[in-house]
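Data deposition worksheet. Section B asks for the primary sequence of the deposited chain exactly as it was used as input, without tags or linkers unless they were present during the calculation. Section C holds the resulting structure in token form. Section D is free text for depositor observations; keep each observation to a single sentence. Incomplete worksheets are returned to the depositor.
Section A, Depositor: J.P.
Section B:
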Amino acid sequence: MRKFIRDAFLNILAFGLPLITIQIIILPLIAKKISVGDHGLLLSVIAFINLSAVTLGNSLNNARLIDKTKNRLSGNNYKRILIYFLFINLIMLSMSFIFFGSRIDYITYIFIVIYGSLMLYISYSTVKFRINLNYKNIIASNVFLVIGYIIGYFMFRSFERWELVYFTGSIFMFLYVFKNSKINEENNIVDQDFKTTSKHVLTILLSAVIISSITYADKLIVLPLLGEEAVAIIYVASFFAKLVTSFIPPINGVLLSYLSASSNLSLNKIYKYIWYLLILLIMAYLPIYLSSIIFTKYLYSSTYQLSLSYIPFSVAASLLLIYGLLLNTIILKFFKSKHYLIFNLMYLITYIGLSSVLSLKLGIYGYILGTLISSAIKVISLIVFITIKKGDINYGK
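Section C:
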């Protein structure tokens, strides 16, 4: 039990350390030195890279982690798939020429390709640490990432290129992971399980693409429709709420584990869990809203006035979105996985459709309204589904 608590703490620390460093310290400092439009462009470029590189890398990582064959340890087939993914990622990143056009210069294009390739390799390679439950290496790799961020920030101050922050961070983390994960030492072997392994990876990738599209679609929708400044304004308006709620899913996972382990689990208990979550998030609205105003004014003074009127709606949208994600976890835990995919795909289509149409009609308010409506539709649909399909709940899953 003591080891579990220690590892859980190290995992949260590994997750939170780079997040807090980049979101609360470095990005606000960069925003003070560049225009609102350039800040929005920065956010869009990183979202574009993450949508491709991190999605592919994490999918391969998770696929190998839950692989029940001998390949989980040997790495057979996975190195070949990694090579394929690096090639696919290169093609995806090259599409940035089309998406961003003249908005960015050739230095940023080169950064996108190199940084994206490094992030894919890093996202996959840490699987060796997770397989061996080596949380010390996980946190050490993130410490190297943070050190790189800090050095990169001072380079940014000298050369006025924000790309140096992310590039230097990824280089430091890559060097640590490359040396300690030993992924590069695995043989590039394709065995008789390659077809099965590929199907396993693609199934997980499909779900990851949907989830990542939901995560990063805001910046990639707003940029072409409303421009760089709108991206920065929406990000700043919702940044604190999203930062706070990003720590909820790990806690939620622990609570669900206890629920599923309960010997007398019932639909009534699940309902109580759903309503307790809703009450908790409603109670959290005012503290998060007030804290958002304080933090936004302090951290993003140049964008504060532009984003102030959007904060109350953005906080509501963020809380409703996280509630939908928490209900999603119940679907994944107690129902067939296909339902999880269907609901996320339906939400993605509704979200993109409503946000795009309303953005064109009402601008930033339209985008936020589209997010609110699509999240509300998802939440209502999930609750109705759980009620109707109560007989299909897998209590022992």
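Section D:
The mean pLDDT is 85.
The first helix runs from residue 2 to 33.
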